[in-house]
Amino acid sequence: MSEMWTEAEKAFESICHQSLQRGDVKGFDDVQRMIEEATTPSYSIDAEQKDKWEKAKSVGLESLKYLTMLVGAASLAASTIPIPESVANITGHALYINNVDQELCAHFLWDLAHKAIREKFNFNFDAASALHGSSQAVIAVDEFEANHTIVKLTFKYLEKGHIKQTKDIVRYLVCWLPFHLDRLRCLEDKDMGMLTPNEKLDIGRNLYKLFKDDQVIRRHRANFEPVWWEVEEMENVQKWLTDSAVLRRLDKTWLDEVYAATRPTRGFLKELVKIVVEGFLREREWEVASAYYWIEKFLSLHKQLVPELLRLQDTELNSLWYERLAEAAATQSSKADTVLLFYQRAIEKENPSWLCHRGLGITHFGQNQTQKAIKHIELALKEAEEEGATPKPAAKDIDGLHLLLGQYNYSAGDVETAATHYSAVRKSEDPARAKEGQLGYLKAVLKFQDAEGMRDLLKTTLATEDGKGRMVNILKMIARDADHDFLISKMFTVVKGHLDLLKGIVCIMETATAMPAPTEDRIAEMSEDDRFAGDETRGVLLCDRGFAAYMYKESLSGTEAVGDERAGCGSPSTGRAATCSLN
After folding, report:
1. How confident is the model at residue 567 (pLDDT cuts 50, 70, 90)?
2. Where are the domains of the chain?
3. Residue 67 CA: distances (Å) to CA of 71, 116, 174, 270, 348
4. Torsion, CA 154, CA 156, CA 161, CA 166, rounded to 10
5. How confident is the model at residue 451 (pLDDT cuts 50, 70, 90)?
6. What is the predicted pLDDT for the residue at 221?
7. How far apart are CA 159 and CA 379, in angstroms?
């Protein structure tokens, strides 16, 4: 156990250090696996010993759960609060982790894990609560101070401009600001903490800065856009704006407007409502699905819909209005007829956008009306490429239209036209788009190109290192494509009898199925879904390599031995992988 435990300790300290640097909590699943291995005996043991091992595992995993939470708090503090480096200071019965030395913090947390394994030490919160009235110190997190700190951090970040490096933190803070404000009020009501008069004034001033005009929200639109507040959360924020201790010294004119408003959307939320609605229906600035949810919550603040909300002059219902309504309807899985109706109304108005034809095309394709879909996407591409197109399309928009035309024509059986559109995207500056174009082009030409033409294409692709790299990516995409069986079978049929090409394809498959080189941050950076997708892709391609070895072994070797192919791949050291595919 001791050797494995030492490895777990090293991994924990390394991940703690990385987490404190990044300001997040990632990679602890790997430590959990190590703890489980360290507390799983590799030899026969009696019942008494088994109980001890199980207890060690249980306590170790339980401690890791709470240590992960502590590291999260420490990483947030270490990355945001400029406090002189010092060991965590203990005040009263609570442990506060301030901006400590990162390596020291990692050692401290691991030492705490060791304590958790020892007898008579565990995370029993019922027992901890009972100790609050005694003289014995308790390790705990002060909930009131934690919520207050998060509220202060939120306002601190909102004062600054939007920074890409902190977008995830700020997005969280924006999303949960009403919750943490409400927790402060609830904890105060329970006498579990109290804000000083100055602290209340600070919260009032910051709420005023946030809602008095549109500056802060526009500055942080990227952080407000992906989230929304529930009705109860907006009402909780409003409660702070009715507290005289919070509102003292604020602009009386603004306060009078807030008090006089019959609804929050006409009061403190007025600027936020304006930004969301205009960004949704007037400016194309706010992402459609997010705007829909924000507006839905705004309307839910009203106990009943007010008639004037629904009375808009027909002149206000322009093409953009209907276009955005159509997009919103599509994101909410509305009936296709509703989406088509909105897009059609948008096209009938003055100055319709090329986006209307794109939306119509996508909707028609979803209804298996492929020819109508192709017609509208072609119109969208034509209008988007015209000078003065509104909105001005980016390169990725043009690429996207070509990809749609490639997909729809391929589906309709017009593979040559599909190849033309896919070819237009193969050298896109966007790597993801380029891969889609390369895969689509290969799928299309495999359908209509003669064998000799396909062999020439494969020879050209495999002639350069760059081409081999593209082919690796294409094979990985083929592995997860619906046409996988046809594509792989056709590819091997084309190269049958051409040993060099066959070896080249198998070598590319070997590269594509190789396990990624282990790096320090790999486990921390990859999500579980990404790891699963990678494993699934490798599994499919390993099966394809086995298919190649079984079906074409005589072509690979010329006689009966297929092991020599490994030398042709230039990777004799990859014994396990080569054996899987060739022997």
Report:
1. very low
2. 2-141, 144-286, 459-583
3. 6, 10, 26, 42, 61
4. -60
5. confident
6. 87
7. 45
